[in-house]
Design brief:
The protein is an alpha/beta fold. It contains 26 helices and 24 strands. The chain folds into 4 domains: 253 residues, Glycoside hydrolase 38, N terminal domain (7-stranded beta/alpha barrel, Alpha-Beta Barrel); 133 residues, no CATH class; 86 residues, immunoglobulin/albumin-binding domain-like (Up-down Bundle); 159 residues, Sandwich (Immunoglobulin-like), CATH 2.60.40. The protein is 37% helix and 17% strand.
Amino acid sequence: MDELSLSARNFPDQPAAAVAQTTGDGRLLSENRMQPISLALFWHQHQPYYPDDVSGETLMPWVRLHGTKDYYGMALHLKEVPEFRCTINLVPSLLAQILRYTDRGGSDRHLDVSRASAESLTEGDAHYLLDQFFMASVDHMIRPFPRYHELYMKRGLGRDPVERALARFTARDLRDLQVWNNLTWIHPLAFEQDAELRELRNKGRFWTEAEKHRLLDKQLQILREIIPLHRELAASGQIELTTTPFYHPIMPLLWDKRSARQAMPECDLPKFLDSYPNDARVHVERAVALHKELFGSAPVGMWPSEGSVAQEVIPVIAQGGIEWIATDEEILARSTNGWISRDSQGYMRHPEMLYRPWRVEEQGHQLQVVFRDHGLSDLIGFHYQRSDPKRAAGDMLGRVEAIGRAVEANNGGRPALVPVILDGENCWEYYPDGGVEFLRTLYQTVAKHPAIRPCRIRDYVREHPATDRIGRLFAGSWISHNFAIWIGHHEDNTAWDLLHQARLHLLQVQAQGNASGTALARAWDEIYIAEGSDWYWWFGDDHSSAQDELFDQLFRKHLQNVYTLLGSQPPSVLNRPIARLQRKVIHTDPKGFLNVKVDGRRTYFEWINAGHYIAGSERGTMTLVTEGVIREVYFGFDLERLMLRIDTAHAAKDDLAQVSELRLIFQEPAGYEVRIAQPGHATAEAVVYRGGERVAHTAVCTAADLIFEMTIPFTELGLAPEDPVHMFLEVLSDGQSVDRAPREGALELRVPGADYELIMWQA
């Protein structure tokens, strides 16, 4: 079979045949395969290095919070199903920070404020509490808990400055907020196992200071279990533990910044293009050494930071004792000049060549490389969160079976290796139950599945070593096979140049012998930390978060530390933010009344004053590679009606004809939604529901042609002037969610009053 379809009706960019060949729980209907398919789930666990080792401060809590939720919970999931096998990548900078909490009494700003008595909080700490303790998925980590949601609404984020909001909070409110934010970042399985934790959560409100400190003690206890749990799972043979260069640098850019131009020939480069090969070696050597110290043996596999690879870095990785690495399928496509690639419809040429390891060689060193199926990986990371978890798990396994059938005849007698590789922490907060039912179903079903074998990658590449060789490995990352996120933008290049200047100063001081060995070693550590990819992730216009300024500050602080440790005055340029951009917002706001005729035609002036949303990944910590159904949404109003327009990749009537239902779901006014069955058809009917009950005699208008248009009277939604409207669109196929706009958060506006246009004109 030469081509494999990767465009399905249920989910984008995936095998159409998969669903038809399986039952709802993923059981194969016809099981005559000679060899089981090897499913290689690979969870990448990573956090940037947040501590300032000179001042002793840690300004961000994400190692601790993801530790009690994801790193602990993912290990508990595996203990529930001992027959399941997978690979977990633990980045050394993450491990070092866990040890900082558990073995060296470390803290962070968030934890310090959590520990402080609610009655004696300083004004600064109270402001920090109200600004930082709602950083969690509102839909799945705040809204489900009545007291936490009550506090969230009382805060009025985006409406009231913190000074005004604080006046509404009592000491009891502040203590409950301290507790709830720490509670919501504990994994659901921990509550299943610990009666005391359940009791604390079930109380729901009005905790005492003593109860709060019991929770924080439990939190530290959970952190202390993370590394031993992974050591136990690895020792039993259930998981393979792999590593990443120590502080998560983009290795090809340390080796040669010019490598960015292989994928981006016109890319602007930093002023200083010096190579740092020794730094790359240090990151690899230290990673291997810490891994061996903590887990008793050296790692066999490695996830190069951000899946970033280049032919030139093969020897330094192999010299660290690494046998295999992983990256994205687009790197394989580029390394084979498109011989193995997908077309615009998601069809793959020679699919059997993706689902096997390859060999790369350089200067007498060699590695095996496996390439992630980025479509399957994105399903877990971005799409299944909105679906029934059991059906989603069945859908995933059906797709894996379809891959096995497609490649079996041409795979040289070896089983298909299907690598599904993604972050092990960031997606679960967007699942309603933290991903528990999906992962339980997936693990338990695979463990008993006659046609799929869960595997550790090390076992596969040793049992079925690569027989195909890549002549030259393309230089790129798992995101769009390039390094655009980390180099090329003015902000990125500025950061690289500031790093180079600090490194050059360190080399000069070292050559002059004007600093102690301890000071030099600590200064080099600051350089290695500043080489981490995460600082560059947030520079430029690729990604944004509420903590962009803090990431900017931390990067510059690490460079300042280089000078301070060497007894030098840091240059004044390091006192100024690198980031100059106004960060992107999810959508623009309406600018005036709309005059829309609902006919599905693309009439420009009808929507010129509309708010506008362009589909993309709103989740700053992760990047979605595949595309959904909705490309753009326009929204606005006149005095009487709410109006929406949806643009798809092609004609909306054709694209929406492939789905079964379109829903407009309101968070405000709560409980309302509009459901449009067969939205691409001329006979589509739109029905308003309130609290799950159909509202009779609705006056919703829809039309689909080149675009999809819809109007809804405000009265149908019980709305009055100045009422808030928070809404999102969801596309369903056979009852399963396949797209959402926006993918996180909501489109927000207020119902206009009679003087709206006058106010807008004056503004």
